[in-house]
Amino acid sequence: MTDVELRHLAALAAITEEGSFGRAAARLGYTQSTVSQQIAALERAVGGAVFDRPGGPRPVRLTPLGSVVLGHGRELLAKAGALAHAVDRFKAGDGRIDIGTFQSVSNVILPSVVRRLRDEHPGCDIRLSEEEPEQPQIGDLDLLFYDGRIDGDVEHLKLLDDPYLLVAGAGTFPDGPVPPQLLDGAPMVAWPLTCDQPAMEQAVARSGARPQVVFRSAVNDTLLSMVRAGLGSAVLPWLAVRGADVPSDDRLHVHELRPSLPPREIYLHWRAGRTHSPLAVRAIEIAVEVAAGLAPPPASA
Q1: Mean pLDDT of 222-245
Q2: Which helix (H) or strand (E) holds 252?
Q3: Dmax of the chain from CA atoms?
Q4: Which residues of 1-32 are buried (b: 16+ CB within 10 A; e: fewer)?
Q5: Is the pLDDT of residue 138 over 90?
Q6: Residue by residue, what is the 3-state secondary structure of 50-106?
Q7: Are 53 and 15 within 8 A, CB to CB?
Q8: Residue 213's beta-bridge partner residues?
Q9: Where does the chain have alpha helices with state H?
Q10: Which member of 69, 94, 228, 269 lies 3.0 to 4.6 Å from 144 by CB, making a disulfide possible if both were Cys?
Q11: Are 255 and 168 in contact (CB under 8 A)?
Q12: Mean pLDDT, all residues of the chain
């Protein structure tokens, strides 16, 4: 059976449906001799005749062996057709993509990426997972957003710098930029000491300020709720502030820190040497476009 080819089975089906080698050849776009050669090769492979050929104007008919071969052959042709369709859809950008993300990217960047992917490829299957471990692993993910570079056999692309801003209750600090030194001893709410948070707090300490951290949470909305409640101020990246639409809340005020702290860096990662699917290639392109189109934080928040 290893000598049986799909074209042989396609010729078998076409002859059965058309009733003659000549009409089957015209349907398949072959010469009649080519169709005859394909059937001869099929008969050699299966060890017997697949058609009775009465000659003259009478139609050819399947032999009992030919009926057996055609029954299984149609199943194989259907599977081959499904495979061709799946390959075409894959090349067109359909298929599945698994993306790892975290809060700020989920709120600000990924909605545009997901919307555009779904608009362009309605049949695509997008799977997202959100977590912020200290040592992320790309695992089986196609793409991974992270605020920093990760270790391992991965490639990366820097999307943008994400500067830190001070979010405080209205009237807590004078309008305009705030020197980090004014945070010394001030009550603060903050993220847990994971990801870029330790580096940010060390930068604040180097500026001569040691705030009093009174609450830690990995949820941006929770931190902002505590700022509204008057528990303390927060130093948050711009994407977190933008994603929560803080500037529209008159109970909160956003200040630049001047001199500024080193910004958080947002990267997109994927496994090194991995061939991207067309869907993953398009996701990277859209993520780059979305990140480039984000307006920087205002000079006077």
Answers
A1: 92
A2: strand 252-256
A3: 104
A4: eeebeeebbbbbbbbbebebbebbbeebebee
A5: no
A6: CEECCCCCCCCEECHHHHHHHHHHHHHHHHHHHHHHHHHHHHCCCCEEEEEECHHHH
A7: no
A8: 188
A9: 6-18, 21-28, 32-46, 64-91, 103-108, 110-120, 197-206, 220-228, 238-243, 278-293
A10: 269
A11: yes
A12: 90
Quickly tell me which residue has 């000659």 as its tokens. Answer: 55
- Strand order of the β-sheet with 264-271 is 125-130, 96-101, 143-146, 264-271, 154-162
Is there a contact between 296 and 165 (Cβ–Cβ < 8 Å)?
no
CA angle, 281 then 132 then 217, to 5°:
140
Backbone angles phi, psi at 165, to 5 degrees: -125, 160
Q: Is the bond leading into 111 cis (omega within 30 degrees of zero)?
A: no
Q: In this structure, which amino acid lies at residue 57?
A: P
Tokens 């910004």: give the residue.
263
* Residue 236, beta-bridge partner list: 165
Say if residue 264's pLDDT is above 60.
yes
Examine the pLDDT at 296 and tell me if it is beyond 80. no
pTM for this model (two decimals): 0.73
Could you tell me which residues come within 8 angstroms of residue 290 by beta carbon, excluding any fewer than 6 positions away?
109, 112, 113
Q: Cβ(77)–Cβ(85) under 8 Å?
A: no
Percentage of the chain beyond pLDDT 70 is 95
User: Rounded CA gap, 118 and 7, in Å?
Assistant: 36
Tell me, what DSSP letter sits at residue 195? T
Reference 165, options 258, 227, 230, 295; nearest CA is 258
